[in-house]
Design a protein that fits this description.
The chain has 147 residues and is mainly alpha-helical. The chain contains 5 helices and no strands.
Amino acid sequence: MNRTVLLRAALADAVLILIFVIIGRANHDDGLSIPGIVSTWWPFAAGAAVGWSLCYVWVQARSTADTRHRFEPASPVPEGVVIWVCTVAIGMVLRVLFNQGIAVSFVIVAAVVLGVFLLGWRVIAGAVERRRHTGPTDSAAQRISRK
């Protein structure tokens, strides 16, 4: 995995978490001040960082001299799932610890939206990458017209 891919994946996660925060704050009239956005964003960003770290350590722990496993943070499974779960779970714990509060409905909405965001871009990127390597597939109309 080259550094550019790592940087893009990290940036995608950070920006999508930021978008989630901005949408949420705008929908709840919490204001869009920079300090307000950062105070809402950082617990989730920290959770994502923990998820990234856990994935990296897990890959390194599974690697041996004979078998090298690759850290693939752009992969939806397992890396994407671990990053998503850590983002939500650790983000919520940090919100409680720093008196930002949580509600069951917020946990559910955050889990769903962040799941769509953090897993969604990985699924889309994977599909684009596979298509790039395999080339475009023939449509049914193209196959029929050749007969």
